[in-house]
Design a protein that fits this description.
The complex is a heterodimer. Chain A is mainly alpha-helical. Chain A is built from ten helices and four strands, in the order ααααβββαααβααα. In chain A, helix 1 runs parallel beside helix 5 and helix 6 crosses helix 7. Chain B has 19 helices and two strands. Chain B is globular and about 60 Å long. The C terminus of chain B is likely disordered. The chains are: A mainly alpha, B mainly alpha. At the A-B interface, helix 4, helix 8 and helix 10 of A face helix 10, helix 11, helix 16 and helix 18 of B.
Chain lengths: 311, 443
């Protein structure tokens, strides 16, 4: 039982990364009907931005000279890192939209998927070319402490990661449900053609969608760095593609759905790894997803629809 | 501006006029003429290439028309360019131009024979060019064979992504199934080694059984495609993209866990059956069969499904059956390509069939052009050669190629040569002053 709860916490932690990335995919897919294949690498860029921002704030490594005059507490550094990196990464996301997707707004959707794929490759190799192949270790932003509740011990990091990711998911959900901007996004997801007639700029909404998704990806990157403090340029590939599948599993454009599916993917992976050898993880996880999609092709929260490929 | 340019030609117009004046005599060169000219060029390279290269200060004959030399040792750029001009551009230019009347007459003569004879003559010439060109270095041999395998792969993906208009991501998966099945077949039967023990059949029999191995690989990967096709073709939409992606990961993970075939370490010691003529034959076969497939009733039905599934259904097209057939057909050819790939490299591991491979194949399809056999051939050969030529740039290669592709997608969203039909009869015809006025009739 103890073991089960520990694995549960691990699964929640892994799931929160998937959830935060999957929401980015799901929003873009919901609003623009596009596969944003660069999103996994935007997550990677977010993690690196977080690395540099937190190093700068702490005055570590190369940033020794830039150390802030006043001594800041670790928790403040974490909050500042999250806010600054999310802002910076949303700019990266908007650039991706501007360069790779907007020129192709009227082209076949598959072509836009190719540009996304190519931008992802550029981000990876660009990182490799600029920063070199060595791995970076993320600075410790949370003083590690073990909490013991009813015989189940876990670190405060895991709790914080899960907490922050659920908080961000709910905040985004509220944003989309209850603000004017969110309403415009939902309107665009509902009918792409009529929205411009209502005086809403589709370009602005598209930019905002990418910015929000990338901000969440940056948060996921920083939390990932807190949990596993090793960054390498290829970390976004597998993570991103898995989160993409989770986004579809959640249902088209459903933020809570994508979040839940992300957590589900985390559960499947962790519990498969405890029962079977860990190399079987991807095999069984994707097998389960394939079976779910066979019986529920619209995902958990997506309404049945038929997206015509505009080709 | 328009009045200005009408009176005095701008520099751009002058350059264009100059080019068209140079190009003018070559409009009447038939395919046969180009092939004979290329044969002369590669023959020349075989005879005087090495002394000429030494004389120009190069250590050996530039492997890919001097591109690699220019990028890795910029100081040698003039000699590499001079070499390419002397060996390729000048001989091809001169021979193609001055044999044009003769080759046109031969082509006209050949046109009277059945298409098979004409096609065979051209293919033999093409193979001769390729063979002599590859004879110089092993590197060229490898590049040529891999480029031809890419043609098969790109064509088969174009059937799904171009002709059917869906977005499939599982081609690396099908390829790896074909590669593993064919490798297991040939290694178990014809190779004595540690993993599978003694050869069961005399190795001399191997090359004759190789087509069987490839076809078995193709059939089993088509069977695997059923797993993707059954759930994803129940509803129209993007499910194929997701399910095929999941399938690709499943296959990769499956082979990583199969210790029988080496797990993550992969499998090696494939016999050297995929020689240049074999790969050439399979490539031609695949182009022929896939071209016939997409021009058949089935291919037309496929296009109808892409353009409007409901309308196609109303026109008595069995949409589900059509999509299934096309998808399994594509998977079969991807499996064959995988089998050839394994026997060219003679070492495969699950990592060679991952996301990178997917990006590569998709790039080739969308670079060349959707819904076009010519486009696929151009895309596969073009991108393979570009990627080999940029090899000295190391990782910057993976920045330049994506930027190129993004630009192509922005300016020609369906690829360079999209939505054209590949008319075999027309390309063999003699060209000239357009006797029947049908010179540029192809659209």
């Amino acid at each position: 039982m103890e073991f089960f709860f520990q694995q549960l916490i691990n699964a929640l932690q892994l799931g929160s990364f998937y959830a935060l990335i999957a929401i980015g995919y799901s929003m873009v897919y919901g609003v623009l009907l596009l596969f944003n294949f660069a999103h996994g690498d935007v997550f990677m860029v977010g993690a690196y931005i977080g690395f540099f921002v937190s190093s700068a704030l702490l005055g570590l490594n190369i940033f020794g000279a830039l150390a802030l005059p006043l001594s800041v507490t670790l928790s403040l550094v974490l909050v500042l890192t999250l806010i600054i990196s999310m802002a910076l990464n949303s700019i990266v996301g908007m650039l991706v939209e501007r360069i790779g997707y907007r020129p192709l707004r009227d082209a076949p959707r598959a072509s836009a998927a190719i540009t996304g794929l190519m931008i992802g490759i550029i981000l990876e190799t660009g990182n490799l070319a600029i920063l070199g192949p060595q791995r970076r270790s993320f600075p410790e932003l949370i003083q590690s402490a073990t909490i013991n509740i009813a015989g189940v011990s876990f670190t405060n990091k895991k709790i914080l990661i899960v907490f922050i990711s659920i908080l961000l998911t709910l905040a985004l959900h509220q944003f989309v449900r209850h603000t004017k901007w969110g309403m415009a996004m939902r309107a665009m997801a509902y009918d792409y053609v009529v929205v411009p007639l209502m005086g809403i700029s589709t370009n602005k909404i598209a930019l905002m969608t990418f910015a929000l998704g990338s901000a969440l990806a940056a948060a996921a990157g920083i939390l990932y760095g807190v949990a596993y403090p090793v960054l390498d340029p290829n970390m976004g590939i597998l993570f991103g593609w898995k989160a993409f599948v989770a986004a579809i599993l959640g249902g088209r454009g459903s933020i809570l759905g994508a979040g839940l599916a992300g957590f589900l993917l985390g559960f499947i992976e962790i519990f498969v790894a405890t029962i079977f050898p860990s190399t079987m993880r991807n095999l069984i996880a994707f097998g389960i997803i394939l079976i779910i999609l066979t019986f529920r092709p619209h995902g958990f929260f997506g309404e049945p629809f038929s997206a015509q490929l505009r080709l | 501006m328009t009045t200005n340019s009408a009176s005095t030609p701008t520099i751009r117009q002058r350059i264009r006029a100059l080019f068209s004046r140079i190009w003018e005599p070559y409009r009447s060169v038939p395919l046969l003429g180009w092939l004979i000219a290329a044969l002369v060029a590669v023959g020349l390279e075989q005879l005087v290439g090495l002394p000429l290269a030494r004389g120009l200060g190069l250590t050996k004959i530039p492997a890919l028309f001097g591109a690699v030399v220019i990028l890795s040792k910029p100081a040698l750029t003039p000699s590499a360019l001079l070499f390419t001009t002397l060996i390729y551009i000048l001989p091809i230019g001169i021979v193609a131009r001055f044999t044009a009347p003769l080759t046109n007459r031969i082509a006209a003569k050949l046109a009277e024979y059945p298409l098979v004879v004409t096609a065979l003559v051209h293919l033999v010439l093409l193979y001769a060019v390729l063979h002599i060109w590859c004879d110089i270095t092993d590197y060229r041999l490898l590049v040529a064979r891999l480029a031809m395998i890419s043609i098969i792969l790109t064509l088969s993906l174009n059937v799904v992504n171009g002709y059917m208009g869906e977005f499939s991501c599982s081609h690396p998966g099908f390829m790896s199934i074909g590669a593993y099945v064919a490798s297991a077949f040939t290694i178990v039967l014809f190779v004595s080694e540690n993993r599978f023990g003694e050869a069961l059949l005399p190795p001399a029999l191997g090359p004759y059984m190789f087509p069987l191995a490839l076809m078995l690989g193709g059939l089993i990967s088509a069977f695997g495609a059923l797993l993707v096709a059954i759930p994803s073709f129940r509803t129209r939409g993007d499910y194929l993209a997701i399910i095929s992606l999941a399938f690709m990961f499943i296959v990769k993970s499956f082979f990583e866990n199969m210790e029988v075939v080496g797990g993550a370490r992969g499998i090696s010691n494939q016999p050297d059956y995929a020689t240049l003529p074999i790969v050439f034959l399979w490539t031609i076969l695949s182009i022929w069969i896939i071209n016939n497939f997409v021009r058949s009733t089935m291919g037309k039905a496929l296009n109808a499904v892409r353009d409007g599934e409901l309308a196609a259904n109303a026109m008595t097209v069995d949409t589900r059956k059509t999509k299934m057939t096309a998808f399994l057909f594509a998977a079969f050819w991807a499996g064959v390509a995988g089998g050839l790939f394994a026997h060219v490299l003679r070492y495969i591991n699950p990592d060679s069939f991952g996301i990178r491979k997917l990006a590569e194949v998709l790039a080739m399809v969308y670079f060349g052009g959707l819904n076009s056999v010519t486009g696929s051939v151009v895309g596969a050969v073009g991108l393979s050669l570009i990627s080999e030529a940029l090899r000295p740039l190391d990782i910057f290669k993976w920045i330049i190629i994506p930027i190129m592709l993004i630009l192509i997608m922005i300016y020609r969203p369906t690829g360079l040569i999209a939505f054209t039909e590949f008319n075999v009869e027309k390309i063999f015809l003699p060209k000239g002053r357009a006797p029947e006025g049908a010179e540029h009739a192809s659209a």
